[in-house]
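User: I'm writing a tutorial on reading structure tokens. Could you give me a worked example: one chain, its sequence, then its tokens, then a sentence or two explaining what the tokens reveal?
Assistant: Sure. Here is the example chain.
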Amino acid sequence: MQKLLFFGLGLVLVLSSALLFSGCSGGNPKTAVNSSSTTPASSTAGAAKTGDKVRVDYTLTIEDGTVYDTSVGRSPLEFTLGNNQVIKGFENAVVGMKPGDKKTVTLPPSQAYGERDESLVSKIPRSALSANVTPEVGQMLQGQNGNGQVVTVKIVEVNDTTVKIDANSPLAGETLTFEITLIEIVKS
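And here are its predicted structure tokens:
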């Protein structure tokens, strides 16, 4: 994994608060391109619902068939349904599942990280970077947006006076396929 570096507050003026939410589109789970489950839809007793804390295993595959990420072999992903801690399409897919259920869901960009937004690509002066940062193409940086929230950007171009950064999610514009297993509904 690449090391994330913090850069100066000069970026605060360049990046708007829209960055944090640009790839997090809401939506209706019925808009998923493909979904299959091992549980009948009519049986909801003991099923995950909004407000439940859940633990899931998942494998994320991108359009070309590459496994992009997985929790298998690591700790399961834990989150509370309805708290917007994961992308909306993923959260919607877990609602109604019971412990032990497995589901495969394919999400279009609108249910995942949204489409690429070229307005999230900008140039900043090299002087806006911390003095200890030597910018390189592909390097990931973290800074704060106008609301004080942490934003991660990727350096896509460097010259003597400016650095071109891209605040789009690496998964923006991608159709994502998740294999999800609900491990448990955590009792509080």
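What the tokens reveal: Residues 29-40+48-114+172-186 form a domain with the Chitinase A; domain 3 fold (CATH 3.10.50.40). Helices lie at 10-14, 18-21, 88-94.
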